[in-house]
UniProtKB/TrEMBL annotation:
Stretches assigned to coiled coil: none
Keyword Hydrolase in annotation: yes
Domain HotDog ACOT-type: residue ranges: 1-109
Entry-linked InterPro entries: Cytosol_ACT, HOTDOG_ACOT, HotDog_dom_sf, Thioestr_dom
Protein keywords: Hydrolase
Originating species: Winogradskyella marina
Name of the protein in its database record: Acyl-CoA thioesterase
Family: Belongs to the acyl coenzyme A hydrolase family.
């Protein structure tokens, strides 16, 4: 799994207990999944369809750095199934895992559209050498 994004936990990210607010983390994950999907499918019209159960195993505190990792589990016809792991760079603990994030590729009319992708592509492979 590649950990593309790092976030610094700031005061506005905390819950009343002084640890990272779960909703903030879910927003970061959703954004990361949308960006990952947009880049993989080369389409900015993608939506989050389904997020499976989320298992919070540890937390983070102000000043900690968290890393968000995403990998592809399955290329469907219009969908892309992702897995996600978030870890705390300071404590080296896994904060949470998500087993299935289903993203759907949309056409111009806003309905599911085949994306035609079957494997992970790296941006450098798309650039002329
Ligand atoms: C280069 C850089 C440029 C940058 C440029 C800016 C980029 C910036 C990115 C912006 C990205 C914003 C995105 C943010 C993320 C949101 O905030 S999205 C907002 C929240 N989500 C929504 O509002 C979605 C609402 N739902 C819907 O509109 C409809 O349900 C959908 C998603 C269009 C799907 O419609 P549907 O009729 O249910 O579709 P259906 O054909 O049954 O299923 C479609 C696919 O999903 C699968 N599926 C459906 N339900 C399930 C389920 N429960 N479990 C598993 N699979 C399922 C189906 O199996 C099917 O898969 P395939 O077999 O085609 O692979």
């Amino acid at each position: 799994m590649r950990f593309h994004t790092r976030k610094w936990v700031k005061p506005e990210d905390l819950n009343p207990n002084g640890s990272l607010f779960g909703g903030r983390l879910l927003a970061w994950i959703d954004e990361e999944a949308a960006l990952y999907t947009t880049i993989q499918l080369e389409n900015s019209k993608v939506v989050t369809k389904y997020i499976s159960e989320i298992n919070f195993m540890a937390s983070a505190r102000q000043g900690d750095i968290v890393e968000i990792g995403i990998d592809v589990k399955k290329f469907g016809t219009s969908s892309l199934t992702l897995i996600c792991e978030v870890r705390n760079k300071m404590t080296r603990e896994t904060i949470l895992t998500v087993d299935n994030i289903i993203m759907v590729n949309l056409g111009a009319d806003g309905t599911p559209s085949p994306h035609g992708k079957t494997k992970i592509e790296f941006v450098r492979d798309r650039l002329p050498s």
